[in-house]
Amino acid sequence: MGIIYITRHGETEWNVAGRIQGHTDVSLSERGQEQARMLARRLSNVPIDAVYSSDLSRAAETARVALGERDVPITFTKELREYNKGVFEGLTEAEYREKYPELYEPSMVNDLDFAPPGGETIRETSRRLAGIVQRIKDTHLDESALIVGHGGSLRAGIVSLLGLPLEANWKFAMSNCSLTVIYTYPDNCVMHLYNDTSHISGVVRAWER
What we know:
By secondary structure, this protein is an alpha/beta fold.
C-alpha cells in the first residue's frame, strides 16, 4: 500500500482579490507562507519518500516549506499546473464578464469542453492530471508521496485517482494548504481524508472574509 498526500498551495494576493491565476506565476502572500508553515508542522511526523509539485511559484514555495528539514528532492513539473485560463488570467469574474461578455455565460455552465481563448478545457486538464497522478501512484505503491498543486487541477487528479466521472470535477472544493490523503493499491485508491484544514484553523482564508 502507498499513501498520497495532496495539498493546494497557500494563499496568494490574487486569491484575496478574486483574480484568476491559472498559469500566471503568482507568489504566496504572507498569510499563504504562514499556512505553509502550519502544514509543515502537520506533516512533521509523517514519512514522505517523494515530493511532486507544480513548477509555479505559489506551489513550489509551499512544497519547499511543507517538506521542512527532510532531505527529499522535489520534482517540479508543468503537468501539475492549474488550468490554463487563457484570456481570463489576471481578471476578476466581474472584470472578465465586462471585457468578454460573450464568454461569460459559457464559462458559468458545467461544460467539459469550454475553454477561454488561449486556455484549456476541463477535459484537457483532466487528461494531463490523470497522466501525472497515475505515474506517481505506480511509482510509489509502497511509499508515501506528497503532491503540491492547485485547486482546480488537483480536483481533476483526485477524480482520476478515484475513478469518478469527469463531471465530478464540480463536486469538490479545495482550500489553501488543506490536506487530502489517499491510500493507493495496485487496483484501487481509497480516500481517507479530504480538504482538512484543522492545522490552519487559526488562519482566516480569503473566501471566508
